[in-house]
What we know:
This protein is mainly α. The chain has helices spanning 10-13, 35-45, 49-73, 87-106, 110-137, 162-190, 202-215, 236-258, 262-289, 297-314, 321-327, 339-362, 379-396, 400-429, 460-489, 504-519, 539-557, 563-581, 583-586, 598-624; strands at 219-221, 293-295, 366-368, 456-458, 523-524, 595-596.
Amino acid sequence: MPLLAGPAEPGLLASPSxxxxxxxxxxxxxxxxxxxxxxxxxxxxxxxxxxxxxLLSAGxxxxxxxxxxxxxxxxxxxxGSPGFTAAPLLVxxxxxxAAAVLYALVSGRSGLAAGLVLGLTAxxxxxxxxxxxxxxDGSLAARPELFLADRLLAMPQAGPGLWPLVAGHLLTxxxxxxxxxxxxxxxxxxxxxxxxxxxxxxxxxxxxxxxAGLLLAPIGSGNAYLLAKNAFEGPTVAMAGYLLLAALLxxxxxxAVSSPSAGVGKGGFAGxxxxxxxxxxxxxxxxxxxxxxSVAPGSVVVTIAGLALVGLxxxxxDVAEADDAVTGDLAGEARxxxxxxxxxxxxxxxxxxxxxxxxxxxxxxxxxxGPTPVPETPARWLLLxxxxxxxxxxxxxxxxRLSAFxxxxxxxxxxxxxxxxxxxxxAALSVTEDKAVDPALFGVDLPVPLPDKVxxxxxxxxxxxxxxxxxxxxxxxxxVITGVVERDDSDEETDETRVSGTVLTPVVAAAAxxxxxxxxxxxxxxxxxxxGLWSNFGAASWGLLGALAVVLGLYALVPRSRPVAAASxxxxxxxxxxxxxxxxxxxxxxxEGSSAGAGFWLALCGAVVTLVAAGMAVAGxxxxx
Length: 625
């Protein structure tokens, strides 16, 4: 069975120390060096900077773990105490990653050790910000495992336990700088990414799910001294920490997926999973054991994602452990579900996302805490349109002959849910119990004049919209993974047909039109200021930016795609542009005196040009055949 480590550089193979089996175990029976094993052995045995750097990295991680454990044993707020006896749990969560790194190092798995350190390092900045909220204002921090107030406190002073926590995260960050070189060397020795290791493609799904859980409230609270809020409603420093963690967790997993070294990839999974467990497990346990606290979905999702990532990293596969000891990687061939199951997952997740989007559009976005009439945002009709645009191609994913094309369309039209969902959430985010409602987000003609302060809060439509965003992102990931599996399982492995160069002209024109369409208003109305990319940037603008990024990314992939894949991607991009233009009849009609803006015509033209490019891609394929 071939080893995962690829051919070494010529300079390494020419080393005299590698020409005899008696001097290194990497040689064959003739005394010649086996390329993969020789290079891996040289990396592990040479007295150079890389082995010393990895040892230093493991030492820094261990010191950081000890500091985190020490901080858990001391009060983090002066005069305060934890809500339960959390010290044993926190000590285990702090020391377990360091123990894993040391085990990998002692057992000769340098790639695994480096990946573990890098996975821990990637999430350390977000965890540091969560702890710094205790310094900014501990009374607003939802950290019952470290501090739970029993009386009203205003700006409590930080205790001695906070500084070891800060030091632990900083030491972990420093460890990553020393482990990066070893991870790079392991990746170079591994060579090309082994396509058989498709188990890695499960990682991004888990990373996105964990990132979504980090944005939800970590705990439910009936305690007046602990305000359990989601990432967007919480205090500033904690909000920055949760947002950073939610972005870095899936990004870390994606980087681990791209590493050619199985050891580095698995280590990245395990490190990110262990760091996620350190964030998700304490609030979940607090919800179980502390009076007037309850378990919230956020911490449960993060914990499940973390456990799944760790389990995925340490699952044994179909390669002998003897090979692992030689290459330094926990390598293997996992058997992912077949193409049928990935198509089922893609279509099922897309349909669920469409259903959740429809529920978010039909359910109330706001609820009144009194007899005041509740206004509804016109953006809900755009969300309903996005649900239809996503659901229709999702149905055809289950049809074998149309599955590949429909999957490509789904990989694009999920951006419509992002576009419309951000507009709906923007209306809800403008409302809190002590904040006025912006009438422009709810149309000009409201049932009654809104006072400066009204008792509105977010309704169930917000929850369904958020669920739709998460499911749409998972459906897009499943569509990408399905495409990889389709390509690997295809009998036409040598087919390198690409779209004709003539398609580039309409694609470039469509890209320019798309930038202009998403950057200019689709409609205008008296008293209404549309969210934009260049001005009036708000919460809804993130939806515009996200949808534009997806569309431009699809255009960029067209020159490197096969004709059918290019056509499906372009068809999906055209549907997203069409949805952008549909804001005029779906949303603008709710505003008195509305009229078409430049964005409407630009989006229509962009959709038409994109469809022309899709037709040219298919026509070029037929002529080539």
